[in-house]
Amino acid sequence: MRIHGVLIVIMLAAVVVSIALPASSVQDTGKNPRKYVTEKVSEADLKKYADSGCEVLRNYGKVVSLKCSEDAANELGLMEDLTAHAMDINSDHQIGADAVLNMGYTGSGSIVVVRDTGIDYNHSELNDSYLGGWDFVNNDADPMDDNGHGTHVSGIITANGGSAKGVAPDTKIIALKVLDASGSGSFSSIIAAIYNATDTFKVDVISMSLGTSSPYIYTSENCDAAFVELANAINYANSKGVAVVAASGNYNLYGQSGVSIPGCMSGAIGVGAVDGSDGIPWWSGEGISLDIAAPGVNIYSTLPDNTYASYSGTSMATPHVSGVIALMKQARRSLSVDETRNVLFTSAKDFGSSGFDRYYGWGRVNASAAVEYAGNFDTIGKMHIQSITITSQKDKTRGTRAAAVITVVDETGSPAQGASVSVRWSGVTSDADWASTGSDGKATVYSDWKRNARGTFTATVTNVIKPGLLYNASAGMVTGSTK
Fold it and tell me: Active-site residue among 88, 92, 98, 116?
């Protein structure tokens, strides 16, 4: 699928998110040049692009930004290079981060990459945390913030407590500037920055308070197919042990629902916002690709020139989660990305519908519980899926639906009673559902009804939550389908 004219925006609820308009009202004949991005960067590929009349704008090594006619791009199978914009502390007590600091966990030894508008590395609350970075906008080694958004986000993670207090104040920050002074940036630079952070720096977390603008927001299980190059980069980071955290977006601000790219991608931890009372602000992006929520209303943090301000947005929620992961990694350095996600979601404080829902995801991030689970990972009991049996059911008026009977057991093989099992359906239907296990360890999860259903119902267990036990996906089944 080729996507044209999309903006990546800073997820800040106080600003209007713009939509890219055509540069000219003249009808596009296919000859007008556009920017494209590709992962194919061999010498033979570069020669092929040149022979087709394409100009290489930037060669990042693992990804190339090109200017081509639309006809040439279609013939070469190129993806258009989208434009990104930045999204826009009492919250440390709300999520239990202050209790974690009192336990001696400060994020020491953890490194977070903030991919944003840069950072004011001279700020008195950030200069000790700053390790360096790169400016992908101006192609130099000085990621100084000329917008303010990146500095505000960085302070939420690691401000040292002079006037603002970060979630993990001893965490180190690497700033990769991918957004310009207006808060806009290209997908090619964002993809390149992901590879750069993963290969060049030994980092724990990539934090992205940015995303696409309307209409490119998604209500489906994930949006990986919408921009494969970016999904590949995120999955590459995950494979190297780097967790990727991204804002869900502020699209309910405009009467829309869904989660933006990259927050809707399967390899990213998509973050929505809550207010100081753990309510969902009406503008926070929601959907079944949302994973977790965090404080994002009136968050006080750092700005350039040693100043401060309170901002609202899923941009502000995202670094709360990134900071909590930094604390978790201090508690257990060997946590894999899958284990990190499991602990983060299992320890979240449940709000809304029991278990997973489209507004809170797995719940509001809970720093104290997450660090406790991470620190005691080896001694906490585990549970896994013993079996998944899926059958279809028919109704004359409603159509067809699937029923998945899922059996959950602990390490001894005994039924895990009272576990919340969450499932995402794919194939015939795309929705998310959950159910609790009974005394026999079985939970029955139903898909939505579908008229004129053709094909296969597939159920994928996305998480199992039970106090005192952690879900071990690698020990049993995860997916089942109708025959």
Answer: 116
Helix (H, G, I), strand (E, B) or coil at 67: strand
Q: Could you tell me which of 215, 195, 219 has the C-alpha nearest to residue 206?
A: 195
Q: Tell me the β-bridge partners of 273.
A: 294
In whole angstroms, what is the distance from residue 326 CA to residue 374 CA?
11
Q: What are the structural domains of the chain? A: 8-83 (no CATH), 85-375 (3.40.50.200), 381-481 (2.60.40)
pLDDT above 90 as % of the chain? 63
Active site residue 116: yes
The model's pLDDT over 203-237, given as tens digits with 9 standing for 90+, comes to 999 999 998 876 677 777 778 888 889 999 999 99
> Which strand ranges, in their side-by-side order, compose the sheet holding 420-427?
431-436, 420-427, 457-465, 479-481
Asked if residue 415 has a cis previous peptide bond (ω within 30° of 0), the answer is no
The H-or-E segment that residue 172 falls in is strand 172-177
Q: Which of 110, 213, 289, 315 is catalytic?
A: 315
For the chain, what is the radius of gyration of the CA atoms?
A: 22
Place of tokens 């869900």: 248
Q: For this structure, is 257 an active site residue? A: no
* Rounded Cα gap, residues 311 and 299, in angstroms: 5
Catalytic residue among 123, 149, 152, 384: 149
Concerning whether 149 is annotated as a catalytic residue, the answer is: yes
In the chain, count of helices (H) and strands (E)? 10, 27
